[in-house]
Specification:
This protein is mainly beta and 104 residues long. Helix content is 0%, strand content 55%. It contains no helices and nine strands. The protein has strands spanning 17-24, 27-34, 41-42, 47-53, 56-62, 65-71, 76-79, 84-89, 93-100. The chain has a five-stranded antiparallel beta sheet with strand order 1-2-9-4-7, with no helix packed on it. It has a four-stranded antiparallel beta sheet with strand order 3-8-5-6, with no helix packed on it. A hairpin with a 2-residue loop joins strand 1 and strand 2 (27-34). 15% of the residues are buried.
Length: 104
């Protein structure tokens, strides 16, 4: 089924709730809405994290060194398998996440 999704107007009932847009051979594309931080975690696969609306500070650990970067609309964070990271929005944010089905 074809669908147009207006990312900038998407909201959810709770932080980090998501609309699944597609599941292609075990890879999901999901639109998230949040206004709260997501806990530090490690994905069991790769992750592509695209800020569509708002600002998000992405904290991540590389070679045991903690780093952070401010992501604004259009910015993309790529997390390799095993990358420890946490996303902290500044106010409301809408984020497109592409990852292995079932990842946290």
């Amino acid at each position: 089924m074809n669908e147009i999704i207006r990312g900038k107007s998407f909201t959810a009932e709770k932080s980090w709730a998501a609309k699944t847009i597609a599941n292609m051979n075990g890879i999901t594309t999901r639109l998230h809405w949040t206004e709260k931080a997501y806990q530090w975690h490690v994905n069991d696969g790769q992750e592509v994290f695209v800020v569509l609306d708002g600002e998000v500070t992405m904290h991540y650990e590389k070679a045991e060194v903690k780093t952070s970067a401010l992501l604004t609309p259009g910015d993309i964070f790529y997390g390799a398998k095993g990358t420890k990271h946490s996303a902290v929005p500044k106010g409301e944010a809408r984020i497109l996440v592409i990852e292995k089905q079932g990842s946290i």
